[in-house]
């Protein structure tokens, strides 16, 4: 979904390496439309397009695809060259092996390993040598390799498990967008575990499709959420399609052919609720329209099911810590 927003945490975390290097990124934030107020507010959200532009401009400014988080830089174009090196491989396994071999030629970067155990495969990352206090680069690398692999074979690789070599971070609530699978923190390595059957699948991409893919990658891979197969994701897709008027819990339960009690219980098991999902979606749709100035505040309020603009104003400030006007002012 284009409206799915990104927590301000990721913008602050992405800037960590630049800050450490003494790089003045304030002009970048101005160009992208991220105000100091938004950057500092923990509840604030950023549009995917803004985050993509921020990453691209940071890569350009630092000339480092590791954004200052590794022992040495990975010059711009390294990821693209790696993709060119693997695009002619016959299977996903051969492509991953070649990609990991490519990066092993640069000793200052993080180390990778692809292993099999029974009917499961494990892509593990040794992030012990990274300067990565917010685990930004570790998360990015795992997401990029998962989504690159999925793109290569033309289907989403369903993850069996994701493990992390660090304790559960404060922003772990965002992980359902990044790793839609069971999570294990404090593990020996950060890794992705998935059925080994994917490794034998043929690559469906070629030089022509790679050219288009690389125009916005790998930033696009990080900005685009993985909706996954959870009930929460199903509900979000359902609500985003049919919201005039916004359906209530009973109507959604009926559509899914389950009782309201069962729906509540399943959502509770996934750590959320119907109201929380609805509010997250309304928040993201509001940010989408506020960034485009295509609708007035009153029209946005009406589209989101608020009877009065003042009610929308109060709800939006509760969701993001900022007023709708503060978000709209970024684009002016």
Helix content: 40-55%
Q: Mean of residue pLDDT?
A: 90
Order of helices and strands: EHHHHEHHHEEHEHEEHHHHHHHHH
What assembly state would you assign to the polypeptide chains in this entry?
single chain
Q: Largest sheet, order of strands side by side? A: 3-4-7-5-6
Uncertain stretches of 5 or more adjacent residues? none
Radius of gyration: 21 Å
Q: Identify the overall geometry.
A: globular
Largest sheet: 5 strands, mixed
Describe it for me?
This is AraC-type DNA-binding protein. One of its GO terms (cellular component) is cytosol. The chain has 3 domains: 6-73, no CATH class; 78-215, no CATH class; 231-331, Arc Repressor Mutant, subunit A (Orthogonal Bundle). The protein is 50% helix and 9% strand. It has 18 helices and 7 strands. It has a 5-stranded mixed β-sheet, covered by helices on one side. α12 packs across α15. The mean pLDDT is 90.
Supply the key terms.
3 domains; DNA-binding; Tscrpt_reg_AraC-type_HTH; about 50% helix; DNA-binding transcription factor activity; about 10% strand; Arc Repressor Mutant, subunit A; transcription cis-regulatory region binding; about 325 residues; alpha+beta
């Amino acid at each position: 979904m284009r409206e799915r927003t990104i927590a301000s945490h990721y913008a602050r975390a992405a800037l960590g390496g630049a800050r450490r290097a003494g790089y003045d990124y304030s002009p970048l934030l101005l160009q992208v439309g991220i105000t100091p107020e938004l950057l500092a507010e923990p509840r604030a959200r950023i549009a995917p397009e803004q985050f993509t532009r921020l990453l691209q401009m940071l890569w350009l400014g630092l000339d480092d695809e590791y954004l200052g988080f590794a022992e040495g830089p990975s010059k711009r174009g390294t990821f693209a060259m790696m993709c060119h090196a693997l695009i002619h491989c016959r299977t996903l396994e051969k492509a991953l092996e070649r990609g990991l071999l490519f990066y092993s030629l640069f000793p200052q970067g993080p180390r990778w390993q692809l292993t099999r155990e029974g009917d499961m495969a494990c892509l593990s990352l040794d992030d012990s040598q990274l300067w990565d206090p917010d685990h930004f680069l570790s998360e990015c690398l795992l997401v990029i390799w998962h989504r690159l692999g999925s793109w290569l074979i033309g289907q989403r690789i369903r993850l069996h498990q994701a493990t992390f070599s660090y304790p559960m971070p404060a922003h772990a609530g965002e992980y359902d967008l990044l790793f839609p699978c069971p999570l294990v923190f404090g593990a020996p390595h950060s890794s992705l575990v998935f059925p080994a059957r994917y490794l034998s699948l043929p690559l469906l991409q070629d030089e022509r499709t790679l050219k288009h893919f690389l125009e916005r990658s790998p930033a696009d891979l990080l900005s685009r959420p993985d909706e996954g197969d959870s009930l929460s994701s199903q509900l979000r897709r359902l609500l985003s399609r049919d919201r005039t008027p916004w359906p209530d819990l009973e109507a959604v339960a009926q559509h899914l052919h389950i009782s309201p009690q069962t729906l509540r219980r399943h959502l509770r098991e996934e750590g959320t609720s119907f109201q929380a999902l609805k509010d997250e979606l309304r928040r993201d749709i509001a940010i989408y329209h506020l960034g485009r100035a295509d609708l007035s505040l009153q029209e946005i309020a009406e589209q989101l099911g608020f009877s009065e603009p003042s009610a929308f104003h109060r709800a939006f400030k509760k969701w993001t810590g900022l007023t709708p006007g503060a978000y709209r002012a970024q684009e002016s």
